[in-house]
Amino acid sequence: MFQIEKLQFKYENGTKALDGVTLSIKRGEWFAVLGANGSGKSTLARHLNGLLLAASGRVLVDGREVGDYSDIKNLRRMVGLVFQNPDNQIVGNSVEEDVAFGLENLGVPRDEMRRRITEVLGQVGLAGLEQADPATLSGGQKQRLAIAGALAMQPQALILDEATAMLDPAGAAEVLSLLGDLHRQGLTIVMITHNMSEVVAADRAAVLSNGQLVFCGTPQEVFAAGDMLRACHLELPPAAALGEMLGIPGCMDLTELLERLQVEVTE
């Protein structure tokens, strides 16, 4: 769905955020983009729906270069983007009003708008809170509301830029569970994160460092590359770190580690 070719981008202050990044993301894939602060991962996310345009190189969405979309609203409807702080995306005085905001801007008919609002609030677990003030919601509920606003546009892909970074463990778990449901329904998920434990659910993951792509592979392949991750200022999750110490690299979680340990002992 996304094809990124030799992408370069420099901010006005001279900071080179992306330096020749090339990668592809398949339709229906859960793709994680990993990196420490300043690695360029959020800059990459903003190129996927045209918030930023390439200085050189190109980004294609469904075979069409981002800069060729005559109506950028169509691209942003196709590719939803959810930011780290949900308060920056919530604009309505009620949950229902917030989800309706983007639909009103698109001129969606009232009956269709009502149908979509009911559908997406059910999807994200906020049914029954239509009239609630968003300020009264928990952090996890606010982030699910932000996701609902994006889903109401009926996107083909959802980009999440550190969407769980400001949440407590319970709120983060709510969001990750929702993303799992959406992925199983066929939605393309691109998750920008520095939290290695969130990579386990992904089909593939890319690692950025200093604006460059340094690795791309399955989560197990990423977790097996401990030295590379540490060089990029990323830490292995506990199960993978323990597995590395025991000579069993690439463990995704404690269950896998125990299973592989049992095999080692048996052999």
Automatic annotation (TrEMBL):
Subcellular locations according to the entry: Cell membrane
InterPro entries, per the entry: AAA+_ATPase, ABC_transporter-like_ATP-bd, ABC_transporter-like_CS, ABC_transpr_CbiO/EcfA_su, ECF_ABC_transporter_ATP-bd, EcfA_1, P-loop_NTPase
PROSITE patterns named among the record's database cross-references: ABC_TRANSPORTER_1, ABC_TRANSPORTER_2
Keywords assigned: ATP-binding, Cell membrane, Membrane, Nucleotide-binding, Translocase, Transport
Keyword Translocase among record annotations: yes
UniProt keyword annotation of Transferase present: no
GO cellular component: ATP-binding cassette (ABC) transporter complex
Listed GO MF terms: ATP binding; ATP hydrolysis activity; ATPase-coupled transmembrane transporter activity
NCBIfam families registered for this protein in UniProt: ECF_ATPase_1 (TIGR04520)
Family to which this protein belongs: Belongs to the ABC transporter superfamily.
The protein's name: Energy-coupling factor transporter ATPase
Organism: Candidatus Avidehalobacter gallistercoris
